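Note to self: user wants both folds in one dump. Writing first protein now.
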Amino acid sequence: MALDSEKLLAKLEPLAGYTQLSLKGKQLLRAICEGEPARTVGRQSLMAVHGELYSKDVDSTVQFESIAERTFVLDSLCDPDTLGVLCQPAQLRVLAHDRRGRQSHRTITPDYIEFKAERFCFIEVKPLDVVRKLGQEYPADWVQDADTWAFLPGQVAAHAMGFHFRVQVNGDEARVWQANALMRVRLRLSKVEPMSGAKHGRILTLLNSRPRTVLELCERVGGVTAGQLLQAVEAGLLHGMLQLQVFDDGFLLFANAMDVERHLAELKRHAIVELPAGPMLARYLRASSTELAHALCRQETFIKRQASPEKKNSAYYATVRRIRQATSESAPAIAAFVPNFSGRGGKGRPVPEDAKNAFLQFVKADYLPRVKGRASPGRAVAAFERDLPQHRDAMSDETMRKLYHQAFAPEMVALATRGLRGYHATRARTDGSKVNVRAAICGFNTHLDGVRVDTRSDESSDGVVLIYYPLVDDSNSYVLSRGISINRPHQFGVNLALRDCVARHGFLPATILRDTGSENNNRAEPEKVALLGVTFQHRPVSAPRHGGADEGFHGKLNEYASSLPGSTYHDAAGRAADGAKKSRRHARFTVEELIAKLDHWCFEVWNKTPTGADGLSREDAFKDQLKRYDDLLVRHSVTPLLAYATGYPIDIRDPNPRRGIRTHGQVFSSQALTTMLQQGARPKQARLDCVDPSILWFDNGSEYVPAYSFDNAKLQAMGIPQRVLYIEDMLNDARDRKAVAKTRRRRDTELEQCVATATTPAPAVDPCVAAAAAPAPAPIEPADEAPARKRVTPAPIQRLGATP
């Protein structure tokens, strides 16, 4: 949704932070509010998790392209002192250092600008490890003061205009906090009624004996929801550990803050304080007196060398790396200088460096690019000995296998052969202590991705293939809704899944995770996020396993679809092993029958099959949790706002009060559109309804009003499958008309070039020379028929008073 700059500026001008700005700063602020973000984040990234959040403060969307930025945006939206946040505000001209220490002017784009009553601040969001690397590479620019970091060139440029500049550092401790922050944002956006005094007293009575979970309190006290409990924790009426525990059914609630501190102290007494000893710490603990004395001498020499202005050599930087390794193992710095006297000797025959480098280069450049199937170290060694026999006696086969495993881990082999997608598909599972957590709440985090159904329809439907868009819950794989498109992915299928979810349940999930396909990344997405109030988070392009819940359901769906007649499982072209056209020859179901069977399997079989030890189905578990978390979901109903937000964007060209709007081979008109055009207003964009394509929605400034095509009455009796086919025909007709128009323009261009070439005057030639060089004229033959007369259409008579 476009930012209302005048409304935002009117909100900011009375603040003290605005009065601190210089004239140039006020001009920059107006340019930020009136312009678009300096860049669109995350669209071209292979590794980043990106998406958009709706901000009620600025009535627009805020983009993020990493978990660190998402955490900052959520914290800002939860902070009552923050009056608004805008992403990618503008470029600043700074005087910064390079790696050699030279100063030069350059432009930087801060991640965000934050508005508070007393100051307006540019924000640069970085993970902790990234900031530490920048501090080592650019020590004159990135400075650490206690636990905070500062970017000095950005501060100087911002202070010159009256702004502030801050570096927001997010470490690993923010993982649980950012999982809870999304629920706190939903709590601010939803209208949760606070619990009554009687219910609060009943809860305190239960908590005086011991801490209790959210599930216990909701079951013991009637009418209390999880949203009311979270609201009480935010207000200080109840207490919990939002920094350490994800808010879900197992979240512990306490009567007072002293109980929380007592509980944390009890946990610390039983916690593992010491980490397993690393090699540096183990060597330091086993060091003899001679080795410790030698370590002290080496440490003193290193300190003197560190303080000297002389240029540092490679030995100095090797010592720095050893100190860093010792610190990471919770060992003292002197552990980096303890020699390993006991490990000397017995090193064996050294491997020649030229042979080692030749083997590694051969595997990387020759073996891995041409390998078919799975790479094998034994085959790599055999190929090396065959192609480079001069190095055969330099190393044993076991030594070459060891070098192979050291340099080419499975994920690195996949990176060299299949790129980043293969790397993510092969690498080991993420360490559980470093994973980004999500609350296991039904309906709160969902996945939406298209899957090509492995069944083709019969010949009456031209053998089309369905693209199914199930909206799958992350906690128990419950299917909330589904969208459908024909033969290719399209945003009609995504929007139909959202409309279907509202029609079935009356709400939308708070967060929808999806991939970066064209049906999800388009110009209508920012406005859809702002209108619906839903967070759309995109999975990285190179990380296919991030949508595990969705992909697992896709496999089960196609396992069922492959059992139906017309299965395309055996081959992408629909062929069996003998080359017969299996899917087209055996297809028996129309599109309507195929959609009905898939819907029945999803909503009646998959959702209602008992799972787990409790014997509950996915639908029963979903409805049970929905009673407690109902007020944290995004409530919607089928309204013109929802129809416009989930519609297909249409550019309006030459709207006419009499003829209406022409698009996709249809003419849309209504009395509201005629009145609007007669008053001089012109809608810039319209939305084609994803459920009823005979309706075109547009914004007249105060409300969303429809325009109807001539097929409106015909579509009212159609079911969803017939409407999906109707939409596919509309899209195909529009594509054909574009292709015909493109061909016609190309022919017209070629004709104009030919005419221009023919009308170019020829160079002057002597008539005598031309007559001599001209060929003899052919004899005149009598014509069999007279040439056809050209028909001339008379011009129409212009009547008096008529408009030409």
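First done. Writing the second protein, which came from a different request thread.
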Amino acid sequence: MGITWALSGFSNSPRCVTNVPIPAWGGIFFMVAPLVLTDYGSLTSSYHYKPKSSCEFVAKNPLPSPAGNCTIMVGQSPTIIPKGRPAMQPADQPNPPTTRLSDQATNLTRRLPLLWLSLAFLAGILFASQVMLPVTVWLILAGSSLLAAILFRILSSRLPLSHAPPPPDSPAPPTSTLFLVSLSLITFFLGSARYQASIPAIDAHHIAWYNDRQYDLLVTGVLTEPPDVRDTYTNLRLSVQSVNTGDESLPVGGLILARILPGQTFHYGDGIRLRGQLKTPPENEEFSYRDYLAREDIHAYMSSAEATLLPFRGGNPLVAAVYALKERSLAVIYRIFPDPEASLLAGILLGVDTGLPAELQQAYKDTGTAHIIAISGFNITIIAALFVALFSRLLGPRRGALAAVVGIALYTFLVGADAAVVRAALMGGLALFARQVGRRQDGLNTLTFVAALMAVGNPSVLWDVGFQLSFAATLGLILYAQPLQEWVTQRLSRIPLLAPRAAHIAQPLSEYFLFTLAAQLTTLPVMAYQFGRISLVSLIANPFILPAQPAVMLLGGLALLLGLLYPPLGQLAAWLAWPFVVYTNRAVELFASFPHGVLVLGDFSLLFVILFYAALLSWTFAGSRLKAFFAARGLALAPMFLSALALITFLTWRAAFAAPDGRLHLTFLDVGSADAVLIQTPTGRTVLVNGGPSPARLSDALGRRLSPFDRKLDYLVIASTQEDQVAALPRTLERFPPDAVLWAGKVESSYPARQLNEWLADQSIAVTRAVPGSGLDLGAGARLEVLSVTPRGAVLLLTWNGFRALLPIGMNFDTLDELQNGQAVGPVSVLLLADSGYAPLNPPEWIANLQPQLVILSVAAGDADGLPDQDTLDAVQDITLLRTDRDGWITVSTDGAQMWVEVEKR
């Protein structure tokens, strides 16, 4: 069976260093690692293993062994197997038969007590993030649970118990289960206490106390890591020692992030004085930089600072030496490799991906291969394989394993120790430790224990996107990698021509396709929730790109090592590695160029994430029970599953059609003699301008066009407060709430306007009053600008590159004079006629000066006022005219240079 290292991970979030330094992790590791391998009385089986000098390290791609007595194969789920007999099997027993995951669920409580204890600890952290109680309260609850557990244990020990061992597949005894529940309560409350204790006290002794003052401060501290150098700025992270407010210098603590101009050179441990205004880190509706920095224990920020080097140093000399090696290694990589290959290798080998251009970084994200750039479990797997082979040969199996653990820890620290890397390193270290002591390592046990161990050091790691993706990917490999490979092997063995080599064919197919599928199955909800987009080409791109990565790492690492020792040799080795690095970049760019390769979902509901994981894990661990449950009630599970799959497919395609395609879309909805314009931007934002008189028609139109996973508006623009223009909004916005509102016109103009204003206030939705020159930045260069404001509303101009659309929804006669009958506006691509074609507000001079290519008329069929006026129709007779009463809804799409038009009824 072997010991499986599920080390594959992803990290799309910026790197951070956890609060607990690597040396502390080492101490915690050696204190608590035996807990993972404890027998827990009769709850687990005893495994015996005698270390041998020769071994097999089996996984994906074969590597030569320096010793000649080991086969080293590197992949996403490597297995360590000593020669002579399979590792970690019960002594003198044959290999156990393959069991399905649903059958294993029966014994989860008996076999994996640490799984539940770790999950309880993590649940306690999540619970405490919502229920804020003092640390002492959580500790009292934990102590009470401990006393209850001791009392329960004493009482249960007096009951007569059978000494016969339980059958292998029998459920845990009630006493064992209840005792485990009581222990889980203890760890739950301890997790809550740990989270609460991690929240810093912001007082006069903390640097964040001095945030948001309207004057410059002098902050003195020590640089805690090398500068983060970008194209136009450099980030410095300081451990603060004092702050000078101008009156006095005060001793304070805490961390600060400061942004300075590029060009200055600093190093880890430098004493630095910063001058600038301290601010609370910013946040907006798309990203909270405040929460991101808070997870790294940073609560103060200088967006523009002046830095001065001081004549003193701090920090750890060993850490300084490691960082100096990293800086020198980075310089060597850029000296022996050309860009962008040098920047890619800097990310793969050293965890420094800031040199990659934004377009190439986006290509890796769009193809689902960003885990290649960032240091992940894949990289740690290869490093671990090399360390095991090298150190076992030089120092022997036991000392070699210990040296490999130390080497993994140092490499983890060298590359930045973000959450995904720490997770992979800890699991790798536990696997080596388990191998040496002859114990079985259960993947679920280890994964949850490592997550809990990381949360002990930094509870905020649970909100780190890199950690979430790494955890989810590893979970997918643990649960589904081997079953998928066995399933493919069985299917291939049924084909007579392929049966003799079924296992050999299944191995690469599994490593490069099925294992990627297993990881993506469990990471899909996280990516949808965190990024609002998923890659549709990932399953194709990864099998083409992953096979080259061992060569990239090994040859690139060899070139770096030789370059550090003797640059000419490093340059020679670099030319050997260069083709594989070039291939990686070019393949990613090729797959990123595929049309519709990314499905943009917008804001993805957390409820969908929870339901997805609940359904997936229920099917995984209780599939047979679910079948029996539904069969007993005369229900067939297969049709239900197919129906659910059809529903998911329908929702996915609907979301795909609602997803942005890089163009600007302007839809004039058919709402009668009023205006309702839906703007969908190239970046996926949605803006509704007015709404018309009918809630039913407006709600139907929005429901057909917005993603089912993102039923909200980014902006609502009130361009007229007349009753027929806004009557539909109060009821419709309850179903499609906006994030923000831009309001023009008097609230008192109509009852629906007053009703809408009250509803927005009750919902605490931000309302900005429109003034000439104000507007909305819609992203990618698109802008909705307010040209004029009247008591009725506003005149709006939508622009993107060469495209211009004029929306005079709230125009009056004064506006015609103010805009010089259109001369102040200039030619436009699209013109919406004002007031459903009312002639006095659409004079021929106005239309002639605007020179529109397309004219839109929003009017009801058989309008009660006889609109549009014939004079207006005569003024646009030589221009393409589309009308909602005849054409239905009208959609204008543009790439900024060309324009496409789609209508409902033609």
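Dump finished. Worth passing along: The two ends are 65 Å apart (CA to CA).
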